[in-house]
What we know:
Layout: E1 11-14, E2 17-25, E3 34-39, E4 50-51, E5 54-55, E6 65-68, E7 77-78, H1 79-87, E8 88-89, E9 98-99, E10 115-117, E11 123-125, H2 131-135, E12 141-143, H3 152-159, E13 167-169, E14 193-195, H4 203-210, E15 218-220, E16 241-243, E17 265-267, E18 295-297, H5 307-312, E19 320-322, H6 335-345, E20 351-352, E21 355-356, H7 359-372, H8 374-379, H9 388-393, H10 397-404, E22 424-430, E23 440-445, H11 450-461, E24 468-473, E25 482-484, E26 501-506
Parallel strand pairs: 7-11, 10-12, 12-13, 13-14, 14-15, 15-16, 16-17, 17-18, 18-19, 19-20, 22-26
Antiparallel strand pairs: 1-2, 2-3, 3-6, 4-5, 8-9, 20-21, 22-23, 24-25, 24-26
Amino acid sequence: MEVPPDAVGRRVSCGGERATVRYVGPVPPTDGLWLGVEWDVPQRGKHDGSHQGVQYFTCRHPTGSSFVRPAKVSFGVDYLTAVRQAYVSDTDQLGQKVNIWPEQQKVRSLDELPSVLLNRCEVNGPGADGETRRLTPNVQWLDLSGTLLSCWEDVAAVTQQLDHLERLHLSNNRLSLPSDPPAHRRAFGSLRVLALNGCELTWPQVLVVVSMCPQLDNLSVEENQITDVQRPEGVLQCLRTLSLSSNPLEQDGVLGLSHLPRLEEINVSRTGLSTLRFEDAAPGCRTAMFPSLKSLNLDNNSITEWCVVDELAKLPSLVQFSCRGNRLVSSDGNPKTANQMLIAKLGQLVSLNSCQIFHEDRRGAELDYIKMFGEEWLKAGGRSQTSTDFSCRHPRYQSLIDKYGAPEEGEFKKPEPFALKNQLMKITFVFPEDAEREPIEKKLPASMVVQKVKGLLYRLLKVPAADLRLSYSSPKLLGTEFEIDSDLKTLQFYSIEAGDRVLVRWS
């Protein structure tokens, strides 16, 4: 295979994986030409660009590179060729070319296509000048994710010929930044949606890219190398939706976005966040930050403190919130109680964890919240002189008192402190058909399903779970034995309590 003269820096495909060429030349003591490549997936490599003590090139990962023969790689094809390969078959039985369209697209020729989806195709550049506008002039959505494009100039050479383009997906590419970003504003001038997931970008690099997209209102930069999100200056002023999911964000790292005037939705799930503070507003007051934010996704982070939720209550427009996969627990350890506290603390929510909050849900949550902390409220001074400490920890409590009235002492909820040992019960397993086997005592949670109990017994007895038959007897009902007939029910379902005996039989 002939190696292009500008091969260094080009993207290639090899064995289904993507890589960037870092070196072209000999690698003694072997003969012939080699390509030194840095893999997108470092686990595919073997070394850091060196061989027998000679450093031929460098890469970011100590074992992220390999030397491969040119014959084993593909440098790809241009956009025009890729479109024809994806949407036009070679010939039918009569020797005529036949269009092959996705079922949902009722078009008769390429120039009618509203979308071109070339995800994982080996596109390496634009093709002949002007041909893209002639071949696919009506494209509004272009997916070039995981291709062999190596620079933004090549992307711009395609998009500047697509006058109606609004949605561009470039995820899982490795694109070098443009040397003159303003020169490409026309190429991305109508773009509203941009996806750059998994592109190894930092936030400063993202800002360079979006400076070419003046009308952008939806940006996804998931799974990149974004840590601190500095305040955008003169860019992203039209942005409404932003996803930063799966980036290693610093704590409070998203506050740099707080002055974007139109930002309505942020996804910062799986970013490691544990805190969020709006220091411009006191507890119970409204922050000037994120003036238009309506939806926030904090799923699968490290949030453990309820003060973070009280900070979110300062957001003036927040109506949708998702907080699954965190470690916010109530004093009784019940996830449903924790959700009630979220609803009570965030008075404007209409949706929690993608579920609508109905009027009766809110009323019940707020009344329970009043009762749950009623005794603490009285000790803090009650209505007359509630302590500052209580007001900081429960900024909505007084407004709930005004709404529903103060709780009476008989209504106070005093949940048991949550601890695993308080949730376990001691059960004795006996073996009526094996008189020589001693009873076995185990501490098990009441929520354990019978199937898992049988799995435990299998490890103890080496008897297949399918052969086990369980029943139980209670000291409260001597002489009565109750069959346990469903593997999918819990011990609690069968009213099994501490001190009960579970009788184990098998064939």
